[in-house]
């Protein structure tokens, strides 16, 4: 519960008076305010700087150092203050957390010293407010990566017991790890370059043959080029197969971009081998050779800058998409206009709208080849508008792309966006967990039977006090409020799993109605632990066996209309007070393996008796209203 | 025909140029005039409210000075501007009931506290309400509860009003309850309530019937004293 809201708890409890006239059941007793003292000031001396605050402020978070009794260890009797030998600057943030309920991370602080202080004071870093959380996580990540980089530089001995496969993979990914890897790295780089140059030189015309036609080098020295190509492809194939073998997850490797480039680079050669001297497909074969140029992309394994460029383009996909879309719109508009403007003039090159596309593109990108020019006045006017607008449309998204690139280049982080998405999901999970925490606390304390509502019955005072201390006054008051709501509506809070269970079973079991004359049933105690107690099936004598196997749903209880009850829950009610006391004695009663399984005898059609002990005990109360809940056993 | 086409298109071209020029002027000229009005509105939105003095509040409510101090500190912590609007109120109230949906009931509560119906809750409203709830006589508390149930403040609680309130209370329980909430549970609860309260069976509950009936019910009487030691 947030700190500031704790101050409104008295209000919420007072407002609960609005439920009272509506409720049919008596309310539970309010928790006694244990030794109510006046609000007192506490002095916290942190390395000489004195902070003063109310005791209540610190009590808001009982699971931290300052909110619990742990701070008593630091109490200084002579000066009557709590002394901490820690950083006072960071302590400011810590104390502000108690005051406002929000933990802030100051930017000038070092992340590791801040983390240490948080750990000392028992505050988890997940509750840093949203305003500062991004910054905190970024700094933490940078720090962690820096540490990792340092560690990598330091470690020169590879971990032992790496299989051959793992060694190879490591060598491929990090060429600096061993000499062999480095050699391999340079050799492949050299052959990529050779292959690319070969492809280029192949098409250069070198010399004339006797029949006075310029022949490209490829056709002149066919054999030489073929040998070169074969050698390169063989090296690439071997490299690809080795990578495939060494990859930890072959499927994932095969789907990665680099492996696809590898395959596309070497495939044309093999296809060419297969389809030799086949005239029909030679045209297609020639086209395939184009794909050999993809070998140049293999360089991206060798160059970090290329990878960053590729990643930038990927991350600016939306800006690029916008650019493309707006250009297309403009092209179509202007091409149409130009076509109709130039329709009148004779010998116009603007023969159709698609033909005008070429003019529009060339004009908008300010190329201006001059192969198509408008001749009419209208055409010239529109043409000028076209070129002016082209400048504007192209200039707009470009700075965004540039800034993106520089940001990524500086940060040198590849998975930036992916991590941000994970953070978002994690943040939502945190919020959900903290919300659940409050309701779980209530359910948990319910199960533990911490509602010691009948002080006169629970005479084992030491146990009680121990129980009481485990929840703060604030929590017990909040739980009392929720308990009152339960009583008003005659329904109970349960957790998600229990709800789903009983929801399913509601469809399965619909217990036949009992006649009111049935006055006794045997029940088995152990209300709280539905899951645990499912395993222990206490032997039951009467035919109500199946009834005890699962929780039954219950129609709301009328105080009188018992005949309408179609399903009945049997509450483990023991009429003997002493046995009740024995139950309370064991705290944390999730431990249902207790041998104290008391059988309960309940007379169902009891009139709604509002005796003084009616609301005394948690389990006794509901029985008086014939609201009985069977325990799942 | 050819010349006509050309002239028509030329006219269109000229028109377009003029329009673009005017638009460009508009972007630069008219924009500056538009800015001022936006900034003016921003000034008024920050409202601060200061409550009346401690002595007056002490006189009007049944709290001691110390209690008023504690209450105000908590109030001001959550709402630094000194007033609570309905949204904030609903947020605060929702924190106490994480499993359910408490905004409807918070709405009714807000209306019950906001006695002058100005849409916001000042510290005086807050403390006056609390004074009745925590330190008032039984009569006053029942009066307050009646006021809460009587949504349109006409002096009668009808079944529809009660059903709204009941649904709001059941909403606060949320979905994961045991036993599972059925559709007509609130309605049946309302029936029970009316059977108890509506003495002359005229379909509405008046303030006298309400107070009468509550005073005769031991459960209710006892629960009225439940929260007296809250502060």
TrEMBL record, chain A:
Residue stretches making up the BTB domain: 40-139
Residue ranges, compositional bias (Polar residues): 510-530
Pfam families the record matches: BTB_2 (PF02214), DUF3399 (PF11879), Ion_trans (PF00520), Shal-type (PF11601)
Major subcellular location class: membrane
Mode of membrane association: Multi-pass membrane protein
Region entry Disordered, spans: 510-547
SMART domains: BTB
Position of the signal peptide: 1-16
This protein's GO CC annotations: dendritic spine; neuronal cell body; postsynaptic membrane; voltage-gated potassium channel complex
InterPro entries according to UniProt: BTB/POZ_dom, Ion_trans_dom, K_chnl_volt-dep_Kv, K_chnl_volt-dep_Kv4, K_chnl_volt-dep_Kv4.3, K_chnl_volt-dep_Kv4_C, Shal-type_N, SKP1/BTB/POZ_sf
GO molecular function list: A-type (transient outward) potassium channel activity
CDD domains the record matches: BTB_POZ_KCND3
Membrane-traversing stretches: 180-201, 221-241, 253-275, 320-341, 353-369, 381-402
Localization: Membrane
Biological process terms in GO annotation: action potential; potassium ion export across plasma membrane; protein homooligomerization
Record keywords, A-Z: Ion channel, Ion transport, Membrane, Potassium, Potassium channel, Potassium transport, Signal, Transmembrane, Transmembrane helix, Transport, Voltage-gated channel
Subunit structure: Component of heteromultimeric potassium channels. Identified in potassium channel complexes containing KCND1, KCND2, KCND3, KCNIP1, KCNIP2, KCNIP3, KCNIP4, DPP6 and DPP10.
Assigned protein family: Belongs to the potassium channel family. D (Shal) (TC 1.A.1.2) subfamily. Kv4.1/KCND1 sub-subfamily.
Record protein name field: A-type voltage-gated potassium channel KCND1
UniProtKB/TrEMBL annotation, chain B:
Domain EF-hand: 101-136, 137-172, 185-220
GO biological process annotation, one example: regulation of potassium ion transmembrane transport
Keywords: Calcium, Cell membrane, Cytoplasm, Ion channel, Ion transport, Membrane, Metal-binding, Peroxisome, Phosphoprotein, Potassium, Potassium channel, Potassium transport, Repeat, Transmembrane, Transmembrane helix, Transport, Voltage-gated channel
CDD domains: EFh
GO cellular component: peroxisome; voltage-gated potassium channel complex
Membrane-crossing segments per the record: 12-30
InterPro entries: EF-hand-dom_pair, EF_Hand_1_Ca_BS, EF_hand_dom, Recoverin
Superkingdom, natural source: Eukaryota
A molecular-function term among this protein's GO annotations: potassium channel regulator activity
Pfam families for this protein: EF-hand_7, EF-hand_8
Gene3D superfamilies: EF-hand
Membrane topology: Peripheral membrane protein
Annotated localization: Cell membrane; Cytoplasm; Peroxisome
Coiled coil region boundaries: none
PROSITE patterns assigned: EF_HAND_1, EF_HAND_2
Entry's family note: Belongs to the recoverin family.
Protein name per UniProt: Kv channel-interacting protein 4
The organism of origin for this protein: Gasterosteus aculeatus aculeatus
